[in-house]
């Protein structure tokens, strides 16, 4: 495997191969096979373009040729930060064929995140759209190329020398013909993270293909399906659970869209006759806010899969009531691997109250009490997992790996779960220090380091505060140097100047005389979370107009 990765032990790899979980094919070969069986099926569509499988594979071949002409080699890294455009799919396939490893960055990332990723990964290229949502990505990419030694190439979907516009040359070999090791790294996903900056998650061709195929099966995705990808497609969930990759392998249609406004979603669902909609709970809540006359726009929808964050039972029940033809499916997953799904044949009660069961028969789960012992059945504990699509280590992160993985290779998820009698998991909380803002993870430590860099701030703690739609938002508790003032706007301005993605900025500021500490000097975040939840509840309980 690529240097810096933790391979699966031989006996596990042998078993996963023997039992048919891992096949000897690359992602490019698998998609090429789907293309041979159904070249004229529409594979991807966005608001600008529609491509059949054959056209997609052809575009991927041209992009792959450009990557190679520029001298990018197997194992080189490219940061991918594209909006939900069809070009994402062809670049992804080109990478899968040439062995250039994409690092899945989010369009919301700004200088701080991108500079870290490029530098840490030694990326030689970055793929962007010149401008997106009013932000000038082209200028930022040029600044990064100036400042980061490894970065040589900027591939822009709308740039003058866009690789997507390259004409076919003799060397535009079709995807799936360049070989590659199915058991080596295909791509890097990003971890939600708990300590420091996000870690890179190496996923192999074999494990990721299994992931996407099994997820497609449990979601009932087939050649007649149309899946709406509205979440940023660089995320594991819309990328391969079953997402874009599951759709390509199933010869289903992936419809990519950038807007997550409920009205726009309903319009797209109707216009494109969408059958599958992977979403975070916040988007499901958004759909429930549509006026009743829009109900019929969701008529084509068969399965709505909610994950990334706990779907609350009332929301699930309301979805079932409002659209009785629809199956609500929950997924509890993570970029590190493990996926749990409720099944389409489960009762509404199971699919409304649990977060599903492991995708694979070979997934191994442990639920441990705080002493590290197996929790009694039905009791809550930390979830650990191991299996044919769960990584054995983050990339180049030996110290973190010693904490995050047990000696025998189980990943400590940081999630608190209990087992429902049905064998499904219920996610009850977490021990990791992050804020889950509508499914987007905010790493507390990463943002605290930025807050502490402010000259007026002497201590900082970022904690989750409850929110009816997003589940959680970030609240910053800080202490200040004497005789200085700071308000939320100024603090957010400061984070903007440091190039921090906006979704990570605190949405409330609490200035305190001191932060509560444990006797070993750690900040008592549970107490801060309780405090801010109470303050918000009091404010909400107060009748309108009252002081
Ligand atoms: C998905 O992946 P990540 O890597 O962004 O985040 C993983 C974490 C989990 O460890 C858990 O804390 C939380 O997100 N989470 C859920 C959940 N699904 C994810 N917490 C409660 N209930 C759920 N249903 O978020 C992800 C990856 C693949 C598929 C779906 C989601």
Walk me through the structure.
- This protein has 547 residues and is an alpha/beta fold.
- Among the domains are: 26-40 and 49-204, Rossmann fold (3-Layer(aba) Sandwich), CATH 3.40.50; 364-386 and 398-417 and 425-432, Luciferase, Domain 3 (Luciferase, domain 3); 434-541, GMP Synthetase, Chain A, domain 3, CATH 3.30.300.
- The strands form eight sheets. It has a five-stranded mixed sheet. A four-stranded mixed sheet has the order 2-1-12-11, sandwiched between helices. A four-stranded parallel sheet has the order 4-3-5-8, with helices on both faces.
- The termini are far apart.
- The mean pLDDT is 96.
- The site of 5'-O-[(R)-(benzoyloxy)(hydroxy)phosphoryl]adenosine (OOB) has 22 residues, from helix 8, strand 15, strand 20 and strand 21.
Work out the oligomeric state of the chains in this entry.
single chain
Q: How much of the residues is beta strand, in percent?
A: 15-25%
Tell how many strands the DSSP assignment holds: 26
By DSSP (H or I, 4+ residues per run), the number of helices equals 17
CATH class of the domain at 26-40 and 49-204: Alpha Beta
Distance between the termini: 63 Å
As laid out across the biggest beta sheet, the strand order is 13-14-15-16-17
- Overall pLDDT score: 96
CATH topology of the domain at 26-40 and 49-204: Rossmann fold
CA radius of gyration: 23 Å
> Per the principal axes of the C-alpha atoms, what is the gross shape?
globular
Main β-sheet description: 5 strands, mixed
Bound molecules: 5'-O-[(R)-(benzoyloxy)(hydroxy)phosphoryl]adenosine
- Helix/sheet category: alpha/beta
What would you say the CATH architecture of the domain at 26-40 and 49-204 is? 3-Layer(aba) Sandwich
Low-confidence stretches: none
The proportion of residues forming helix, as a percent range, comes to 25-40%
């Amino acid at each position: 495997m690529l240097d810096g990765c933790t391979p699966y032990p031989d006996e596990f790899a042998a078993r996963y191969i023997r039992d048919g979980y891992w096949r000897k094919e690359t992602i490019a070969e698998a998609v090429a096979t789907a293309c041979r069986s159904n070249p004229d099926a529409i594979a991807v569509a966005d608001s600008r373009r529609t491509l059949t499988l054959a056209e997609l594979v052809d575009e991927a071949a041209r992009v792959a040729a450009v990557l190679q002409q520029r001298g990018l080699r197997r194992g080189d890294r490219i940061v991918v930060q594209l909006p939900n455009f069809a070009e994402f799919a062809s670049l992804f396939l080109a990478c899968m064929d040439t062995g250039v490893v994409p690092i899945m960055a989010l369009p919301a990332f700004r200088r701080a995140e991108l500079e870290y990723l490029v530098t840490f990964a030694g990326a030689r290229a970055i793929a962007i759209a010149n401008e997106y949502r009013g932000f000038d990505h082209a200028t930022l990419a040029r600044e990064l190329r100036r400042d980061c030694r490894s970065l040589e190439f900027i591939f822009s979907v709308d740039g003058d020398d866009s690789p997507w516009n390259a004409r076919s040359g003799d060397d535009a070999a079709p995807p799936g013909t360049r070989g590659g090791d199915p058991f080596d790294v295909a791509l890097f996903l990003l971890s939600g993270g708990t300590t420091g900056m996000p870690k890179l998650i190496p996923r192999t061709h074999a494990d990721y293909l299994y992931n996407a195929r099994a997820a497609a099966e449990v979601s009932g995705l087939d050649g007649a399906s149309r899946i709406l990808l509205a979440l940023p497609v660089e995320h594991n969930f819309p990328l391969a659970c079953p997402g874009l990759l599951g759709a390509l392998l199933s010869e289903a249609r992936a419809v990519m869209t950038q807007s997550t406004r409920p009205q726009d979603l309903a319009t797209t669902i109707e216009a494109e006759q969408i059958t599958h909609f992977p979403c975070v709970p916040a988007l499901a809540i958004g759909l429930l806010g549509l006026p009743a006359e829009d109900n019929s726009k969701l008529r084509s929808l068969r399965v709505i899969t909610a994950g990334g964050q706990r779907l609350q039972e009332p929301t699930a029940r309301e979805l079932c009531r409002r659209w009785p033809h629809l199956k609500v499916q929950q997924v509890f997953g993570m970029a590190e691997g493990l996926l749990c799904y409720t099944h389409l044949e489960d009762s509404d009660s199971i699919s409304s109250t649990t977060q599903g069961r492991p995708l694979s028969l070979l997934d191994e789960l442990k639920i441990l009490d705080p002493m590290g012992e197996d929790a009694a059945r039905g009791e809550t504990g930390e979830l650990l997992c191991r299996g044919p699509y769960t990584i054995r280590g983050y990339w180049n992160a030996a110290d973190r790996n010693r904490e995050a993985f047990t000696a025998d290779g189980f990943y400590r998820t940081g999630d608190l779960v209990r087992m429902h009698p049905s064998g499904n998991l219920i996610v009850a909380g977490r021990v990791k220090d992050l804020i889950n803002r509508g499914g987007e993870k905010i790493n507390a430590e990463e943002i605290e380091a930025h807050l502490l860099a402010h000259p007026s701030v002497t201590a900082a703690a970022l904690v989750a505060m409850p929110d009816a739609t997003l589940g959680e938002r970030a609240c910053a508790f800080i202490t200040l140097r004497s005789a200085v003032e700071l308000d939320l706007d100024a603090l957010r301005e400061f984070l903007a100047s440091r190039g921090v993605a906006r979704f990570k900025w605190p949405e409330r500021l609490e200035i305190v005389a001191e932060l509560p500490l444990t006797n070993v000097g750690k900040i008592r975040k549970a107490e801060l979370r309780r405090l801010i939840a109470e303050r918000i509840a009091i404010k909400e309980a107060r009748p309108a107009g009252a002081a």
